[in-house]
Amino acid sequence: MVCSWISAYKNDLLPSPNNVTLRFENMFSLRWEWEMPANFQKCSWSFISDVKTNRKPPPGMVKSSNLFRQVDIHRVDLNNQITFNVQAECNGTSSKWSENSVLIIPGNNTCVKNFACFWFDETYMNCTWEPTVDSVRATEYVLHYWRKNGSSTSEGKINRSVKFDQLWYSGTPCQHYIYKDGIPLGCHFKTVSEKNLFLMVIRDKSKTIRPFITSVKPEEVVKLSPPVIINKTRTPNHSIYVEWSTSFQPSCLHINSEIEITSSKGKVETVEVPKCTFTRELNALPELTYTVRVRVRQSSTISSSLFWSEWSEAHDIKGTEDNTTFYFLLILIPISVSIVTIVILVFLKRLQVIVFPPIPDPGKVFKKSFGDPSDLQQWIKYGKVNVSSKPVKEEICSVILVETPLFSSQAE
Length: 412
Prior knowledge:
It comes from Xenopus tropicalis (Western clawed frog). The protein is an alpha+beta fold.
């Protein structure tokens, strides 16, 4: 009988796993289960399973003799389709793949987008989101969450028989919403531990839009406060010295820094600073002005977070070109003001003549119309003046004709 089984395996008649199903082992673990035909139970089975999801990196392939596989919810994208494949092996022979695809929350569009959580300075955590186009009218958002502390679930334990669509209302509701324009678009968590794992579901009260479900590990979303630049100056060799500090208290060995320097010519350079270093001397040209700013993040030795803090306030370090410009402006501005003043005065003078023309002198007008008044005064003072014309005496001149006698020689 055993020989017949082996012959069947070699002829690729090994049956594929069947009845592949998915359920929640708890709120933080998915469990796929399958079966094999009863008449093949005497074989030493092994199974290769593969989980395909949008989350990177995916869980990948696993080989096991169990008829189930569990996957942490943090390793899958719960808002999109999850595909599970399983294959049986026996004595070096493999069956065909069995596939199971499932959408945890059915529907087309979720009610939120751009969901993000940040654990600020390892003190408090804010999770925020934006409404989608389809959910503009859904102004009443509700967030429920489940918290797992290490290997134990401290909140939101569930009954294993509960269906998916019944789970999303069994969690702890958000206690401190973050509002924007009167709409709850975030949740504030006052107490958070690096060992926590959160499962969150966001929906609208009307239940008309597909909920959004996600998981969050605080240790992966640490974001530090921006550093403060406490000193920036030029050294005698014209390089730039920058010093900064951060409010994050753990050892400096756990802090990575990055400094950005921008010259007045627009060249931008970013420099990574070694751990435990909060100063940097940068090469610079003496004539150029530079702008510097700094940001920090936790080292990978203590955190898997890849998030940088916001940039610090930008600071300028002046160059010698600024002094030249200053003296040039110091000379140019007074000259420009003087020229403008002269132009304005000339313009105002001409404007005054146009707007307020001079009043004519009545004496000049009378003189032009009736002559010079001084002549009248002379006439009154010295009596009558004979203004008639004296007769002109005509002289009569007589004309005498003188004839010259012709000489005899001429007459001939």
